[in-house]
Write a structure and sequence with these properties.
By secondary structure, the protein is α/β, with parallel strands linked by helices. It has a single domain, classed as Histone deacetylase domain (Arginase, Chain A). The chain has four helices and five strands. Helix 3 links the parallel strand 4 and strand 5.
Length: 154
């Protein structure tokens, strides 16, 4: 599972934190300064035998696409090393520079690259739409992810 929403996937992490059959990665705003504050720290790696099956990649407010994409590549490498059979993407698009309550600076065209990178994982993929708060731009960003994904799959 991969959560790319600006806010940490604390509920998803809690569900799978002690599981051996699911790898969970989350790229999100640093919980030292961003909601939900109480989960999403880099040292949260899983518990017991599942230690190492949870990967949090918190990033500072103001993070741009180059650094964010590097975190995405780290997450996708970890998912590949886990030998996942499929990829579930929690597709939060509040990483957009124009989002009123988030702090990353991705541009609409960056989401084409996100879709390409996700397709390059080569896994059957399900997108779970989580939205964003720059409502007028959500459609463009969503289409860009899906177009990038589909173009790479062809």
């Amino acid at each position: 599972m991969l959560d790319v929403d600006y806010h940490h996937g604390n509920g998803t992490q809690a569900i799978f934190y002690d599981r051996l059959d699911v790898f969970f990665a989350s790229i999100h705003g640093d919980p030292h300064t961003e909601y939900p504050f109480f989960l999403g720290y880099a040292d949260e790696r899983g518990v017991g035998a599942s230690h190492g099956f949870n990967l949090n990649l918190p990033l500072a407010r103001g993070t741009g696409f180059v650094q964010w994409r590097s975190a995405l590549h780290t997450a996708l490498r970890s998912i590949a090393e886990f030998r996942a059979d499929a990829l579930v993407v929690s597709l939060g698009l509040d990483t957009f520079a124009g989002d009123p309550i988030s702090g990353f600076t991705l541009r609409s065209e960056d989401y084409l690259r996100v879709g390409e990178d996700l397709a390059d994982a080569g896994l059957p993929t399900v997108f779970v739409f989580e939205g964003g708060y720059a409502v007028a731009e959500l459609g463009v960003k969503t289409v860009n992810v899906l177009e990038g994904f589909e173009q790479r799959r062809r």
